[in-house]
Design brief:
Radius of gyration: 16 Å
Largest sheet: none
Order of helices and strands: HHH
Number of strands: 0
Strand content: under 5%
Structural class: mainly alpha
Helix content: over 70%
Length: 67
């Protein structure tokens, strides 16, 4: 039963990501377009560091909440 719960958590997390992304696109598309243009102007190493930082923060949040 534990693996079914894990899949349920994963699907829930993916659904929440889609809700948040959809709201951002619906509520402020012009701001998002500007942010994407800014991201495209950044060097790859800066994007990698930002992605790594985000992943680490995400893991810490999940670890703190889930124990």
């Amino acid at each position: 039963m534990a693996s079914a719960s894990g899949w349920s958590d994963l699907v829930t997390a993916v659904g929440l990501v889609l809700v948040i992304e959809g709201l951002v696109l619906a509520l402020m598309p012009e701001i998002l377009k500007g942010l994407v243009a800014e991201i495209l102007a950044q060097p790859a190493h800066r994007l990698r560091l930002g992605g790594l930082f985000s992943a680490v923060v995400g893991v810490l949040i999940v670890w703190l909440v889930r124990g």
